[in-house]
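Quick review question:
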């Protein structure tokens, strides 16, 4: 049985996908494709997300480095933005890390319930942004594998 025998290529068969992607959510994106073989629509959404995430992580790095007025608010907003995009695609680890970025930028703990100091937030933001970038890089490789072109 080849990969093309199962339902238009199962993303969950790619190593690491089960830890990174919610299959039900991602399947909803795939259902929007007109042609299962080409998957042009979902691929464009996913590849647009890659660009958004790269740009957003660069902005996060700048804000964390500058530590100017309202940088925590900006980091929170960037985390919120990326959380929404990654949730739409079912990218669970990236979404969870971005939610923490959002909370830390609001001087809250992981769950968003307890207050933390600005120093704690800075330390946690440095760690979680690095983690989110690693998770993004991992899921990006999984998705690139999924959308691999036959003639690539």
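Suggested answer, residue by residue:
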């Amino acid at each position: 049985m080849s990969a093309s025998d199962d339902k238009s290529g199962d993303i969950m068969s790619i190593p690491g996908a089960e830890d990174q992607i919610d299959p039900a959510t991602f399947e909803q994106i795939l259902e929007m494709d007109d042609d299962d073989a080409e998957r042009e629509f979902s691929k464009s959404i996913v590849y647009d997300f890659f660009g958004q995430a790269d740009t957003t992580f660069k902005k996060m790095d700048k804000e964390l480095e500058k530590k100017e007025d309202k940088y925590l608010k900006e980091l929170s907003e960037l985390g919120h933005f990326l959380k929404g995009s990654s949730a739409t695609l079912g990218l669970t680890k990236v979404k969870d890390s971005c939610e923490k970025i959002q909370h830390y930028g609001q001087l809250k703990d992981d769950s968003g319930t307890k207050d933390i100091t600005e120093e704690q937030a800075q330390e946690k933001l440095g760690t979680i942004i690095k983690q989110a970038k690693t998770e993004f890089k991992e899921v990006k490789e999984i998705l690139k594998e999924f959308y691999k072109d036959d003639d690539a």
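Why it works: Confidence is low (pLDDT under 50) at residues 1-8. The two ends are 22 Å apart (CA to CA).
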